[in-house]
Description:
By secondary structure, the protein is mainly alpha-helical. The protein has one domain (7-128). It has 7 helices and no strands.
Amino acid sequence: MGLSLGKFPDLLWMIVPESRPIIAELVRKELDESIKYNLHLGKVSNFELAYGIYVELLGPALKNISRSHDLAVRCLAVIQRTLVEANEIADGDPLVLEIMNRVEAEELLGLVNDLTPDLVALYRRIKSSR
């Protein structure tokens, strides 16, 4: 039996091994809270995960693209695939709100467009439909 944390964390785990400590910490937090408060196990928050991925991996990779091109491309590939394939509210909202909006606010959308134009086009379609 395999363990699944959901589309976004599972893809990150497989494609971006650098994300594993972030995912593991969120899983530990969920387990600790479930034990402490006698709760059923819940899924890792995609909002917390998206925030952690941006702050710890993608943001720094984009800001130092010459040294972290591969990491940035792999992170962006996971984001694009998740947005295309996943449930909009559960998976899409955290990615748009916690990652893509930050990319745009930090004026990195042009760079992301150079790396993954389809992702930026998808982001703009999602944003304009809200």
